[in-house]
Amino acid sequence: MTTNRYAVILAAGQGTRMKSKLYKVLHPVCGKPMVEHVVDQISTLHINETVTIIGHGADLVKTHLNGKSEFALQEEQLGTAHAVMQAESVLGNLEGTTLVVCGDTPLIKAETMEALLQHHEDQNAKATILTGYAENPTGYGRIIRNNTGLVERIVEHKDAAEEEKSVKEINTGTYCFDNKALFDALKKVSNDNVQGEYYLPDVIEILQSEGEIVSAYQTSDFGETLGVNDRVALSQAETIMKRRINEQHMRNGVTITDPNNTYIGSDVKIGRDTLVLPGTVLTGNTEIGEDAIIGPSTEIKDCVVGSRTTVKQSVAHNSSIGSDVQIGPFAHIRPESSIHDEVKIGNFVEVKKAEFGKGSKASHLSYIGDAEVGKAVNIGCGSITVNYDGKNKHLTKIEDGVFVGCNSNLVAPVTVGKGAYIAAGSTITEDVPGESLSIARARQVNKDNYVQKLNDKK
Predict the structure, then answer these.
(1) Where is this region: Pyrophosphorylase (predicted)?
(2) 12 annotated ligand binder
């Protein structure tokens, strides 16, 4: 019989040790808020309902997890058991298994949570603890097992006897429970402790006292259980996640020449035989094709990049870039740009909300904003689409096969017709017919001996 499964994510704590205005679980790890890492891993499991317990920064958490989770508000932070209790209105009367995981554990993997759930169900347990093996278990609760391998008790470090302190299997703070047993036991949890809070591990003790089976599943990767409580732990999580992501890409056929200095977000997709060079930062929903060369010192966010494209020492955000394209060095592709195949965007060229047709070129020192550039267009050095009149942005249209001479200004709104030529140094304020040569510059005047006359006056 298939068991219904639920998940509760604890994400209500303020995180005072972060010393930050930003709500703790929203601190990013490899470009994504750590609570979102947890939710995204859970979303790959067969979970019937996910409830995130929110408190501080509730609205921001809802924004980031919109559509991925239900929410329950913990108005006062009175402990982890109290936090889980807030999910009772959603889960309290349901049959099944509930996974409880902290929103500040961004490294936990779906495979580990699935193994924990499966072990819990196979053991017919009322509670199962995810444990880890710590070389230095100082500060962690120790897992004390009986002769049959079941959990006898959890002993906090400060309460452990010397023999118990030698135990290196520790409580990670992630659990599985029989859902009804969980909410029944939560009602019995007391806050009779130094902090005056309701602690979730007390549920384990309650279930044991009632003779229920409490099991444990030990993860083989202790690092993924890291809880992020301060900036030091945040940097540790970033390092581990970065290594994990980079290794996955390399095993999938991507060459990363310097993984320690390459930063790739968890949602980035990269095709085989692409080369990623040092100092590259790839984030958001970026997708890169095969045989591309990215970097060095390149930042790409929320872009689709085609195959065999080179992006060198450049920045690109929220745009599409075709195949066989050359970008950089030192180019800036701003949002809502569409760069078609075989385009060249050269050094110190800025493109903003513009479309470049197949085979067009802007090789150096140009600004092309709010523009439609056709196929096989050549935009000369220092050319600018003058798109802003002080109040509104206007469109420049450059049709197929146009040649724009160096140091030209195209004052929008303006259209340059198919196959037209713009003479170097022109300022174009009116439409240019196709196949025409447009010259818009002052006539040159040479004044003979002018410098000598000027010097004589001095």
Answers:
(1) 1-231
(2) yes
